[in-house]
Design a protein that fits this description.
Layout lengths: L5 H9 L9 H7 L67 H4 L6 H9 L12 H24 L9 H15 L3 H6 L2 H19 L71 H6 L27 H5 L34
Helix pairs in contact: 4-5, 5-6, 5-8, 6-8
């Protein structure tokens, strides 16, 4: 959301220390002796009041179940007002803009608006419009990578790669403060590949004691996974749209880039999930019985109460269910860490 009203939602999430970024207390408690000082990071949570509605202009979206209309990149959304506020913010879901409600720029909007372009408004200064819109998607990916790196850079289970993680964090952080020309020339796919390989090694190290099923990149669209034992599993880049994961044990699973849109997480346990983002949680369905990791916010659209389950339901635990296989993803998911799916022309908001 790139509206000031949307900042209410962002602020609600910002108050939580988790959502993909470890709290200072947790990071300090887990920091191993001898770890070098990490660079000062850009803000990794959205502050819409300091952004010029870049997500509502720079990115394209396609008419689908996520968006009511088509919009090309660089064209302002028809609902965007002159004050950079969304005219239908309170009715986005009912108006067919569910995609807007789960999009998260990870702070890239204000970084581009206030740091890269020094607070210049693309409406007041049309000379920065094109470059600003081109840089925003690049910055968003950099911030996404930083979130993932920050999650494991001091994780006790990833001790063997702490040095490499810290070096990658320093490199990516420096890029977020680079000028528009440098960002425009950046080979983002190559950078993502390099960081992805490092994150994969960190994940394998963290999950070493409880390695679960290998479902990386698996097509589990609509799969019946009720009560599935997926503790420590690799679900990197898995397609889990509309999958039934109710009551599933997802503790410690790697879900980087997993597409959880409309996935049923009612009663599921996501404690310790690696690389889970608030946007993935927002895109799914859950209830009061869904166990979220520390710091995550229970979405308003989730069921307020847990449904009663029959004895047979509560005792039913399947292996994998649905269509699985060991399909291979591309490291950090191919699909974005916000849970969005590529190839649909739609951005996840």
């Amino acid at each position: 959301m790139s509206t000031q009203e949307g900042c209410v939602e962002s602020s609600r999430r910002d108050a939580a220390p988790g959502a993909g970024v470890p709290s200072p207390a947790r990071a300090a408690a887990s920091e191993p002796a001898g770890t070098s000082e990490l660079p000062e990071l850009p803000e990794l949570r959205a502050d819409c009041s300091r952004c010029f509605a870049l997500c509502c202009v720079a990115l394209p979206f396609a008419r689908s179940s996520d968006f009511a209309v088509d919009k090309p990149a660089g064209k302002p959304c028809g609902n965007l007002g002159a004050d950079f506020r969304c005219g239908i913010h309170r009715d986005l879901r009912r108006s067919g803009y569910t995609g807007c409600t789960v999009f998260d720029c990870a702070g890239a909007g204000q970084q581009v608006s206030q740091v890269t372009f020094g607070g210049r408004d693309w409406r007041a200064d049309r000379s920065v419009a094109g470059p600003m819109f081109a840089v925003f998607p690049v910055m968003r990916q950099l911030h996404e990578l930083l979130r993932y790196l920050q999650e494991v850079v001091r994780h006790p289970g990833a001790r063997t790669v702490h040095g490499e993680l810290a070096a990658a964090c320093e490199r990516v952080t420096a890029l977020t403060f680079a000028d528009a020309d440098v960002l425009g020339r950046l080979d983002v796919p190559e950078l993502r590949h390099e960081v992805s390989e490092l994150l994969l090694r960190a994940s394998e190290s963290v999950r070493a004691g409880q390695r679960g099923r290998e479902l990386r990149g698996a097509d589990l669209f609509g799969a019946r996974l009720r009560g599935a034992r997926l503790r420590g599993a690799s679900l990197r880049g898995a397609l889990l749209v509309a999958a039934d994961l109710s009551g599933a044990d997802l503790r410690g699973a790697d879900v980087i880039g997993a597409d959880l849109r409309d996935a049923d997480l009612r009663g599921a346990d996501l404690t310790g999930c690696l690389f889970l983002t608030q946007a993935q949680v927002d895109a799914a369905r859950g209830d009061a019985a869904t166990v979220l990791p520390e710091g995550f916010v229970r979405p308003d659209h989730w069921d307020a109460v847990a449904p009663s389950r029959s004895r047979s339901d509560s005792g039913q635990r399947s292996g994998s269910g649905g269509r699985s296989g060991s399909g291979q993803g591309n490291g950090s998911g191919g699909r974005s860490g916000s849970g969005g799916r590529r190839g649909r022309g739609a951005r996840r908001r």
